[in-house]
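Predict the 3D structure for this chain.
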Amino acid sequence: MVAAGLLPLSTAANAAAAPPAAAETGKRGITWAPCEEEPEAECGTVAVPIDWSRPWGPTVDLALARRKATDPAARVGSLLVNPGGPGGSGVEMAYAAPGQFTEELQRHFDIVGFDPRGVGRSHPVICSASVYNQMPHAVMTSQADFDRWTAYTKKLRADCRARTGPLYDHVDSVNVARDMDAIRAALGEEKLTFYGVSYATLMGQMYAELYPHRVRALALDSNMDHSLNVKDFLDTEAAAVEDAFDQFVGWCDQEPSCALHGRDVRAVWAGLRAKARAGELYYPGVPDRPMTEVQVLWQGVLGTEGPAWQLLSEMLNALDGGPPPSWVPPLPGRQPVSGEVAELPTAILCQDYNLRVRDYDEYAALMRSSNRLAPDMSYNPMPIEDLPVCLNHPTTNPQHRLRYTGSAPLLLGNSLHDPSTPHIWSANVARQLGPKATLLTYEGWGHRIYGKDRCSTEPIDAYLISLTVPPPDFRCQVGTVASLLKNRSEQWPTDRLPWSGPAATPVVSPAVTAR
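Done. Predicted structure below.
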């Protein structure tokens, strides 16, 4: 049974024995018991080496949660799932499975979610809150700012490593992929069936590289592109969030229910940014400190991830002096934490992506490039908040083109107007994979495509259940804006939770024949 909080590190016995493969590590199986937090689900753990190059050394317990297939006679096997982040909880994803996956998929699979190493219930990367709260402002404007960040990140990394222990240096997605293979073996599955969203797609990609012949099906929704250098990473993120904001502005111009309908939305937006820069903008319910401009930009990201256009329009109207909406999301963006410790999942990103820059001049050039691509947004606040944290961080799984030598086809998916994982990322991953992958494009809005509409959900179900792959470069067209809004809702525990609202009834897929 898994309890919330830190799970202990332990030392594996028999250190003199031959090193096992990931599959051998998982052969010990899993002891399942009702979850304390969600009794209708089952929880368990799998112990894996902290350092896979020392398989008989200290271990960490990975937290798992399972919901069994609703039709045992139709069961295909276990579907491993994770919502991304980095920092998202697969355990929570499994808890929420009845509202997140179609009844058809739940008939055929045990839905098994896991918290990756360094996350949630699997010994999270933690730092002293007192050190974390010294973090400088994310956006640098001088070499002095750059030097301040350089000194701070060294202090932060030393503190987080001391607090977290040896696991701190082993949380990249290659290690997670090895963990996934241990979980596969512990579940008794010959091959892996996996559905991952956002940052979890990188886990799936690394699994395909490491274990190409143990892949049954990998459905990778809203992909990371692990081949991008720092400039291309920031540029594509800026272009994506600008495109998503453009879509919101267009909707607001056409939709009478938009709280800013009939007004110049871009002018309102620019005015809010200016007030934030002047220290004169306050978030509803947070009167003790003004909003930063970065926190304003977060509105543009989180309001277009769902998309939650109606709520975004009401929030911008409230910030501009209008009434607040009936539900006000928590203040977004990085901010001080209370208590003794703070979690830092950004350490995972730093180990997967080399985001180091030489000096302020190089940083300023990167920002100017983003600004040119995003006249309204200027940049995407997600990577801009993360980049300084990664300035001096060792990258253990640096960027490279995806290499997959297996025969099982992979399914990639992305919305055309995704503010967080740009469509071009999935398209580029598809190009790297060539005929071994099919790209499913949802010609609509928001972050992740499963559950958006029948046309973006049924092909994923068919692939996972029966291994049926849609035609090459399959495009799912969206009808009217009104029909989209009937389907869209904040129904997924994405890697950015503040805009999540009540779960919606999932899309119902027709029966699919299992293979």
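The mean pLDDT is 90.
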